[in-house]
Design brief:
The complex is a heterodimer of chains A (770) and B (161).
Chain A (H helix, E strand, L loop, with lengths): L16 H5 L15 E7 L5 E7 L1 H4 L4 E6 L32 E2 L5 E7 L2 H8 L3 E6 L6 H6 L12 E9 L2 H7 L2 E13 L7 E7 L4 E7 L3 H11 L7 E5 L15 H12 L3 E4 L2 H7 L2 E13 L5 E11 L10 H8 L9 E9 L14 H19 L3 H8 L8 E2 L11 E2 L4 H12 L1 H4 L6 E2 L2 E14 L5 E7 L5 E5 L8 H13 L6 E5 L16 H28 L6 E4 L2 E4 L6 E3 H10 L6 E7 L6 E14 L4 E12 L6 H20 L29 E7 L22 H12 L14 H10 L3
Parallel strand pairs in A: 1-12, 10-11, 14-15, 21-22, 28-29
Antiparallel strand pairs in A: 1-5, 2-4, 2-6, 3-5, 7-15, 8-13, 9-10, 9-12, 13-14, 16-17, 18-19, 19-27, 20-21, 20-26, 23-24, 24-25, 27-28
Chain B lengths: L3 E8 L2 E8 L4 H8 L18 E4 L2 E4 L12 E3 L12 H8 L9 H14 L5 H7 L11 H16 L3
Parallel strand pairs in B: 1-5
Antiparallel strand pairs in B: 1-2, 3-4, 3-5
Helix pairs in contact in B: 2-5
The chains are: A alpha+beta (770), B alpha+beta (161).
Chain lengths: 770, 161
């Protein structure tokens, strides 16, 4: 460790900002290559239909159209989009190919592609494509999928992509012994990441070189490179994935999608670079949706509310195909259902059902948002039934520090070692209760002031971070003193460059202004793990630390050579190597870099590192509180105040951590009240524009207090970091749902379904005569 | 494929002669013809506000205006806000307040905020919230953006502007 850490732990201003503030960022649509064409995609207007014929003649005749193609025109075996995460047995029957062949299975599925000189012409030509569809009945609900009267994939013989049971202890015995049980059904609304920048790609495909260069990649570039290389029968070295500035990811962006294959195919067909930019309507049907869980949850407790067991059935609506994220959403919903509580017995039947809707992937806090909503709503019902204060009920059941670390059991098939690491869950809840003034609120639940009913809801969460393969970093010092970090991790806009530079600056004891950060592209480093599961600060951050430490050692070796002395007498400090001789000689990094360069091109002052946490995850945890005021006459809910605590081990940059918490929280308010992919019974998406698909805006904000706790540093990395990207969002629906229920306690209205909308609330109030 | 029209766009103090189809949006013209790619397209149907530019002082969604309608008006885009290498006070306030993350919506917030502050140099917090409620940000939760705009208003008042 450096003697001082002027950067780590400080709210260092972001290195990325200047280019974004001046309009000089380079997002994918800002890149123009010589002789570049653009493509547009004809997407299925039907949720489920056979394709009898496709006629591209009129489209091809439009002046400015260079080419048009459909599946039948592609002279290669169409690859299956691979499973990256949670690849459960059975999913292999439901993988997607990049373009529909004989049948479409969701509105938005690619059917044909037009390549033209500009996008206006390409879209003109899309209108002239004629497809003869024979519509089929659509499967739009999990119950309908389970019944299996209509099969989305006939060859599979069923709509159940996979189904398994996980658990620990003897749940049935727990329920037999219980003084109290309750059963409820909860649903979480289908919604998605919806980053402000839609997806986009530019492919340069030269089969002769061979070279496939794909611009606009992000998130998991090395995984994607491996699979694209295989799909196009190229050596990996012939595939370059280039990361540009990225306008938000939140889980959805950077996975392999049909377009990651179609854009290269288009470029190979015409021998020119081809750009594709998703428009917003496409984005809402073509980019992964998420959530969409139905959970039947049972709880068994003692008469004092001590949890004896939980049983559940989780049904995930996977949409029409299993994409790269596999079973993450429903499997994590099941795994996190018991949450941070002592639940000695647990059993969960997890079902993954295929429907005629857009395929599902991850969105910030996948499964956690859903699980927390179900469990925390249930706990408030238990508290009410047993006449126990909701906070007291939680404190009775939260794991204590002495319970930790705790092996949670194999709650995801194959994940046998999952272990909650050390922490103090009651502390995080107690600090929340203090901050929100909970003691004063106990007797004010349901108070009506000026026609508005007030309620305060709380919820606890635990959340894993930093899974996956090792992450890499390389630090190079140039002879002019500039220090460059390269990492296999990506940036999707969260401030990765700043964070990595902070760590490097401290561990090399240099000014942060000397540091530049390059990330993501497969051309930068030999391999990398990527950016997901709140892992950048933990994984890439520790790789940067290790590279800096190695670079210190390398500096000492070089100085020993330069001084022709023994390395043992040398010390690295203040950005230089010091010799403790009479002359107090010093060699700066600049001098050492020049010396290294003078010795030959292979002798750069550089160091590589890879950080592997060997699957040991750190768990962030905390609690949320929402204070709501509900206009009983209109059903409109205003969240007046919101407080959250989140234990993150150590804050690399407190202002950026705050930004993650508040940004996540506001996204969570959207998922609770607004964001909703509504489908009709024919499988048509009714919310296909921003006029219909609502996102939180600046007038929807409560008074927010987000408290990052640093009481329990991770034991799995020397800097103590835990993930900080999802704690803001994962318990929002849970806390708000509880608050709304408390506000309306006079009417005994229970929130079991998301989103919470004025019409739903009014319908519930009308039903009880309010 | 359709007729081209000549239009002169005055953008950030410079006149540009363009040949455009009547249907070309101002946003596409700025980005494709003038290479001013700081103006971003988030929805292309006038809801998200990312493409906002200042037209004769007013915040306008450049995805909802045709380039041919811009003849004779003065347009300011995000590229026109800084003074050389020096960030404007508003840009600096965004930087100081961590009011951006991915940066994609930022140009639209900056242009919207400039037009708001020109109209109302002393906005309340609620007025700022209302004024930017037509711009969507998915990263920040808006709080630091509101803080940055209020900071700028305060600094301008104190600076006698």
């Amino acid at each position: 460790m450096s003697a001082s850490t002027p950067y780590i732990g400080r709210s260092v201003k972001r290195l990325e900002d200047r280019r974004f503030l001046t309009g000089t960022g380079r997002y994918i649509d800002d890149i123009k290559l010589p002789d570049m064409a653009v493509m547009a995609i004809y997407r299925s207007p039907h949720a489920h239909a056979r394709i009898n014929a496709i006629d591209l003649t009129a489209a091809k005749a439009v002046p400015g159209v260079i080419d048009a193609f459909c599946a039948a025109d592609i002279d290669m075996d169409l690859p299956e989009i691979p499973l990256r995460l949670a690849p459960f047995d059975g999913f292999e029957r439901f993988l997607q190919r990049p373009i529909a062949d004989d049948k479409v299975r969701y509105v938005g599925e690619p059917v044909a592609v037009v390549i033209a000189s500009d996008r206006y012409i390409a879209e003109d030509a899309l209108d002239l494509i004629e497809v003869d569809f024979a519509p089929l009945p659509a499967v739009t609900q999990v119950d309908q999928a389970a019944a299996g009267d209509t099969l989305v994939h006939e060859d599979a013989g069923e709509n159940m992509a996979t189904r398994y049971t996980v658990g620990r202890g003897d749940a049935d015995d727990a329920f037999r012994r219980a003084a109290y049980t309750r059963r409820e059904r909860f649903t979480t609304n289908r919604h998605g990441a919806v980053p402000m920048e839609t997806r986009g790609l530019i492919a340069e495909f030269n089969p002769d070189t061979p070279l496939l260069r794909l611009h606009g990649a992000t998130k998991v570039n090395f995984f994607n490179r491996r699979h694209l290389a295989a799909a196009f029968d190229l050596p990996e070295a012939a595939v370059e994935l280039i990361e540009t500035d990225v306008g938000g990811g939140f889980g959805a962006r950077g996975e392999l999608y049909p377009e990651d294959y179609l854009v290269p195919i288009a470029s190979r067909r015409i021998g020119r670079p081809v750009k594709w930019i998703e428009d917003r309507r496409e984005n809402l049907t073509a980019t992964n949706h998420s959530r969409d869980i139905v959970c039947d949850l049972e709880i068994a407790t003692t008469d004092e509310g001590r949890i004896l067991g939980m049983r559940a059935t989780v049904q995930g609506d996977m949409g029409a195909y299993i994409r790269t994220n596999g079973g993450v959403v429903a499997s994590k919903a099941a795994q996190f259902l018991p949450g941070p509580y002592r639940v000695p017995a647990f059993s969960c039947d997890v079902q993954f059902l295929v429907t005629n809707k857009t395929p599902v992937g991850t969105f910030r806090g996948p499964g956690r948002f859903e699980a927390n909503f179900c469990r925390e709503r249930m706990l408030d019902m238990v508290a009410a039934d047993l006449n126990i204060d909701p906070a007291e009920l939680r404190l009775r059941n939260l794991m204590e520090p002495a319970d930790l670390p705790y092996r949670i059991g194999e709650l995801v098939p194959g994940d046998v070692n999952a272990t909650f690491d050390r922490g103090n869950y009651p502390s995080a809840l107690n600090q929340l209760l203090d901050e929100v003034g909970y003691a004063d609120w106990k007797d004010r639940q349901g108070t009506i002031i000026d026609g508005r009913a007030y309620g305060l809801g709380i919820a606890c969460f635990i959340e894993s971070s930093a899974a996956g393969p090792p992450e890499t970093a390389r630090i190079t010092v140039a002879a002019d003193g500039a220090i460059e970090i390269r990492t296999g991790a990506s940036s999707v806009g969260q401030g990765t460059e700043t964070g990595m530079a902070q760590i490097c600056a401290d561990y090399l004891s240099v000014d942060i202004d000397r540091i530049g950060v390059l990330h993501g592209s497969t051309t930068l480093v030999p391999t990398g793990g990527g950016t997901f599961h709140s892992r950048n600060t933990v994984m890439a951050g520790n790789a940067v630390r290790m590279a800096a430490e190695t670079l210190q050692a390398r500096s000492i070796e070089l100085a020993a050579l330069r001084w022709n002395t023994d390395a043992s007498g040398l010390e690295y400090r203040d950005g230089a190597v010091h010799q403790n001789d009479a002359a107090a000689s010093v060699l700066s990094l600049v001098e050492l870099a020049a010396f290294a360069q003078s010795r030959g091109t292979d002798e750069a002052l550089a160091a590589d590192a890879a950080f592997d946490n060997e699957g040991k995850l750190s768990y962030s945890y905390g609690a949320h509180a929402a204070l709501v005021a509900i206009d009983v006459a209109t059903g409109v809910v205003e969240v007046e105040k919101y407080v959250l605590t989140e234990e993150i081990g150590r804050a690399l940059n407190p202002a950026m951590v705050q930004g993650q918490a508040i940004g996540g929280l506001v996204q969570g308010l959207g998922g609770t009240f607004l964001d909703h992919m509504v489908y009709d019974e024919d499988g048509q998406l009714l919310t296909g524009s921003f006029a219909d698909y609502l996102l939180p805006t600046s007038t929807d904000l409560p008074d927010i207090t987000a408290i990052a706790l640093e009481e329990s540093p991770s034991e799995f990395n020397p800097m103590g970091f835990k993930g900080a990207g999802e704690g803001g969002i994962v318990a929002v629906a849970a806390a708000v749902g509880n608050a709304v229920t408390h506000a309306l306690n006079a009417h005994n209205i229970q929130i079991n379904d998301l989103p919470i909308t004025p019409d739903r609330l009014r319908a519930a109030l009308r039903a009880v005569g309010a | 494929m359709t007729a081209q029209h000549s239009v002169t766009l005055n953008v950030n103090g410079t006149a540009h002669d363009c040949e455009v189809e009547a249907r070309m949006t101002l946003a596409d013209c700025l980005r494709e013809k003038l290479d001013l790619t700081g103006t971003h397209l988030g929805c292309e149907h006038g809801v998200c506000g990312a493409c906002t530019v200042i037209v004769d002082g007013a915040a306008v969604r450049s995805c909802l205006m045709f380039a041919v309608q811009a003849q004779g008006v003065q347009i300011t885009t995000v590229e026109g806000l800084a003074d050389g290498d020096t960030l404007s006070d508003l840009q600096q306030a965004f930087h100081d307040n961590f009011a951006l993350q991915c940066g994609f919506c930022t140009p639209g917030f900056l242009t919207t905020a400039e037009s708001v502050l020109a109209e109302n140099p002393s906005p309340t917090r609620a007025e700022v919230q209302s004024a930017i409620s037509g711009n969507i940000c998915r990263c920040t939760g808006y709080v630091p953006i509101i803080d940055a705009i209020l900071d700028t208003a305060k600094r301008r008042r104190e600076g006698g502007q």
